[in-house]
Design a protein that fits this description.
Helices cover 45% and strands 13% of the residues. It is an alpha/beta fold and 197 residues long.
Length: 197
């Protein structure tokens, strides 16, 4: 069992252009709350990918599972995206193991949709962000009510705007137009911390 990092948060989100704004919002919001976001970017594909994802979840005290993009894609054959609910299931199973202390949160853009698509979640109140950056910030503050750091949503939004203006420069520094890369994720986290300070 890997060592659990007390402030680490496994972030289970889609990696696509349509989610870019919310991706940045999660990074900024979690860092504002004194937490360390962790993602699957950089995990190599292959037979052991699932094992590595599970180890990453196990190393985090918390996990966030954004189910707002579990939908049919446009390409043939039209297929729903099941990675996010699957990884949620891994986190739920981990949390049920004695002594892990893992805490998981479900985030969604629409009220009651998660309960309809995964009825086993009935009894769990998802954090509804309405598909908005400000909504992600608000729901992160609701999920992680902490005694120490209690940033305001306006302060988080200010940092988000600062980071958004730096994205192109950061992408140019790694010669990539793709925002969803391991190195760029690390650079975004560093830039968010610097903007907060």
């Amino acid at each position: 069992m890997p060592r659990v990092v007390p402030d680490a948060v496994f972030l289970n989100i889609p990696y696509d252009a349509g989610f870019r704004r919310l991706y940045l919002a999660y990074i900024v919001g979690l860092i504002h709350l004194g937490l360390e976001p962790r993602v699957t970017l950089g995990i190599p594909n292959g037979a052991r990918r699932l094992d590595k994802i599970l180890e990453l979840i196990k190393s985090c005290r918390y996990s966030i599972h954004d189910l707002s993009r579990v939908q049919l894609d446009r390409k043939h054959p039209r297929t729903p995206r099941f990675n996010m609910p699957f990884e949620l299931g891994l986190a739920v199973a981990l949390a049920k193991q004695n002594g892990t202390g893992h805490q998981w949160y479900v985030f969604e853009s629409m009220n009651r949709r998660a309960q309809k698509s995964i009825s086993d979640l009935n009894g769990t109140d998802p954090n509804i962000h309405d598909g908005l950056v400000e909504g992600v910030m608000r729901e992160l503050c609701n999920a992680f009510v902490r005694s120490g750091l209690r940033p305001t949503v306006p302060a988080m939004m200010h940092t988000y705007r600062v980071l958004s203006r730096q994205v192109r420069t950061l992408q140019a520094s790694v010669a990539s137009g793709d925002l969803f890369q391991a190195r760029l994720f690390a650079d975004l986290c560093i830039a968010a911390k610097a903007a907060i300070e």
